[in-house]
Amino acid sequence: MKNIILPVSVISKCLTACVSLIILLFLSCQGRNTQNNIDQISESQVIKLARGLSIEKHDNYSVVTVKNPWQGAEDISMVYYLVRKGSVNPLGIDSGQVIFVPLTGIICMSTTHIGMISALGEGNTIKGLSGTDFIYSPEIIKRVEKGLIDEVGYETNLNKELIIRISPDLVMIYGIGSESAGHVNKIRDLGISVMFNADYLETDPLAKAEWIKLFGALYCKEEMADSIFHAEVAEYNQIREFVIKNSDERPEVLLGLPFKDTWFISPGNSFVSKLIEDAGGNYLWKNTSSAFSMPYSLESVYIAALDADFWLNIGTVKSSEEISIVDKRLTDLKCFRDRNLYNNNNRITSRGGNDYWESGALRPHIILKDVAAILHPDIYPGYELFYYQRIN
Amino acid sequence: MTIETSMLSLRKVYFIYSLLITSLFLLFILDLFLGSVSLNAADVWKALFSGADGHLETIIFKFRLPKAITALVVGIGLSLSGLQMQTVFRNPMAGPDVMGITSGASLGVAFVILGFSSDLSPDVLKGFGNWILVAASWAGAGAIMAVILFISARIKDIMTILILGIMLSSGISALVIIMQYFSSESLLKAYVIWTMGSLGNLTSDQLIVLVISVAAGIILSFASSKMLNALLLGENYAGSIGLNVKFARIVIFSCTSILAGSVTAFCGPVGFIGIAVPHIARIIFRSSDHKILIPATVFLGGSVMLISDIISQLPGSGKVLPLNAVTSLIGIPVVVLVILRNRKYSGIY
Q: Has domain A247-390 been given CATH number 3.30.70.1130?
């Protein structure tokens, strides 16, 4: 019985376990947010709210900087020079960082970018997408069905040969982590420009919408992008002020759904937490801060949420029975008993595309109005929810 | 190799048993007191023995008590099946997962979470954490068990079966990797979290099913202790003293499948307990007699799992660690010890 046959698999399991524990410890200890110095906003800069983006206008070109484009990135800046087609490269610029604009063909790795591109009337420049199953926009779905837009795969699974055949002006990606940089370099090696988009890391709804200006610069439609953004800011602020003025109550809000006995909680410095605050709600974890979702035990969330008034963004749930299937104990929560359950899946396709993630990125004021109308039904009588629906 | 009844006297064995039972009982109670939400000890005591108001009672009776019972049962089930596999395969590194039962269960779950969901998503997701996963996991484990039984009824050499089991297990993992590769981030996350193991999500019906399955496994284990002792001498020798080796294998494999299959179905692939606990039992009792080791493994398995659960709840913090990380970190020192002390240890093994 001296022959030991399995040590390699045992050791690899040890390693996996250690690594996952270290990662989790690291994640749970992350109290810092990516607070960067955005204090000095100079006049030549176009961006006011977005933390991860800056655009500097020059005579013949603009300089776009995307900061910390993936979760956990620190002090990483990606610089791009947008040069008008036909003009000469500005001196002293690495030609690898030059993107010629206006774009005539783009591949997007996230469906959130569809909304912004379509808003500028440039939907027909989209030649390839990652996750075509998850598109909501009927026009874009039609183009996919006609074969005008190809599915390019994702991450390490990217169909590089297809990308070469499409040969777009730009591949717009969003970073899951630095490890994904490998396939990014591969596309770059093929001579195709790649740009990181970090809109999904913005923690302020308006800051996220401000990324339309990036597309404005890419399509040479800066004014149009600016006016869309300013209209959005005005409407958002108007709703926020209206809600704050006309409501006294700050109902408590629970978010999400547990997986097994772990509940991944959105931190207080997240997009959705800010939205709830602006909609006159009191998010239960508004005082937490983390760059990632935090793993809480079901027990502790249950205790905290016992008297919560509303329960929003409940996974992909469409009926209250689905919640009781996930965990029967959740049906004891006050918000469940009162059926104050609302989910952001009012506009979805049968395959799982959700307009909340698509056009919602550019229209935070509608999301805000939805949430405000849910939390304070008396101030928006008769309002019909757009992205949200009540779960019965 | 010989069977060695413990080097300890029978009185000493019973003394250690009573210590283990006491610590098991204390750890069970401690698991009720320590959870991720910190509760006043006096309140918990009151809730347990004279009832309390709504919240506290819910926490104790709906969260912590089922979880503690699950921990106990899971610890016992995995440790016993580990002990059996180590004896049958005559390999100190064998565990419940060596036969591919765990990977079979993983395949079933991967089909539900990654495979089907990618086409039917997101409606299928509503079945998460419930009977769909359990049924799939059981079906996967059962299918592998059927294959193993089929092989073991035909092939004589136990090492061949071990190798086939490992190959089967790797083949299944490869299928799961393919499914992972083609699945979306959120589904991948759901699957990965399943593989981290969890104790606290069983409904009362599921807990009853788990307790009955593991109880059946325990009874079968006690019944098979003579066979296991005979197998320690090697299959040829065991056959020569009148043991029907193939029959013994079928009994023991079925027992392990019931134990490891149901635990994995309800709690995910909980690692290392099955390998480590039998060794702890052998070291404590300095014995390879299954009549001594089986009860010892039962008591120790329950205790180690309760300790793991308490640690994974990070008492008072509100947050949790994945169960598998904790069980592995407890199991690793034991496995290292066994590898380093292999020569000395083989005296009692």
A: no
Nearest-angstrom CA–CA distance, B52 and B47: 5
* Helix (H) or strand (E) run with residue A126 in it: strand A126-129
Could B63 and A326 be called an inter-chain contact, meaning their C-beta atoms sit closer than 8 Å? no
pTM of the model: 0.76
**Cis peptide upstream of residue A102 (ω within 30 degrees of 0):** yes
CB contact under 8 A, A4 and B125: no
CATH for the stretch A53-231: 3.40.50.1980
Question: What is the rounded CA–CA span in Å between residue A164 and residue A168?
Answer: 8
Give me the residue label for tokens 């399995």: A6
Nearest-Cα distance to chain A for B150, in Å, is 23
Domain ranges of chain A: 53-231, 247-390
CB contact under 8 A, A21 and B320: no
Terminus-to-terminus CA distance in chain A, angstroms?
Answer: 61
The total number of structural domains in chain B stands at 1
Per CB-CB distance under 8 Å, the chain B contacts of A6 are 91, 93-94, 98, 166
Contact (Cβ atoms closer than 8 angstroms) between residue A62 and residue A82? yes
Whole-number pLDDT of residue A13: 52
Q: Which of B93, B126, B325 sits opposite A5 (nearest CB)?
A: B93
Residue A1 CA: distances (Å) to CA of A306, B92, B229: 55, 7, 14
Q: Which domain holds residue B167?
A: 10-345
Region A364-376: mean pLDDT is 95
The CATH number assigned to the domain holding B305 equals 1.10.3470.10
User: Half-sphere exposure of A205 toward its Cβ, with a 13 Å CA cutoff?
Assistant: 28
Based on C-alpha coordinates, what's the Rg of chain A?
23
- Residue that the structure tokens 């002020």 belong to: A241
Q: Would B1 be classed as within a structural domain?
A: no
For residue A155, the model assigns a pLDDT of 65
Tokens of B270: 């909980």
pLDDT, tens digit, 9 for 90 and up, residues A310-345: 999 998 888 888 888 888 889 989 999 999 999 999
Which chain B residues in 292-331 lie under 8 Å from chain A, judged by CB atoms? 313, 318-322, 324-326, 328-329
pLDDT at B348 over 60: no
